[in-house]
Model the fold of this input.
Amino acid sequence: NTIFVITNDHTNMREHEEYKSDIGIFYGPVVIFDPSGGIPAGEREGIAQQTDIMPTMVNYLGYGKDYVAFGCDLFSTPQDKTWAVSCLNGVYQYVEGNRILQFDGTKTVGLYNIDDHRMRHNLLGKEDPSAMVSRLKAIIQQYMNRMLDDRLAL
Done:
């Protein structure tokens, strides 16, 4: 009756190029293992974050009540609809689709292709990040309001 979830909060594999950036330090797997075989073995490419673990497990276990989650069910959310938020040195990083947005709370400071592991090619000025900024601001606002009102549970 046990499902194992294994993940990390950041990497320390700094000798590898893909980890040597603001976003690279957050790269890591989310491994879900069910010894009973109820969850079939497989691998899925996509964006995932620790806050996805709870809605993934809650939905898998068939919990039928309302709940609040700042993440998505990794088993049922299409890959192109997954996302992640992190904050490093006062700069929010929002990953969605194939873009990484960096936002300092006031303005966008960077926009990168997810395959630009070292974040060397800032796309700001070449692409309009306003839709991503709006979604990130909504996530931040919901989280902060729920924290202030002690409503993270519902």
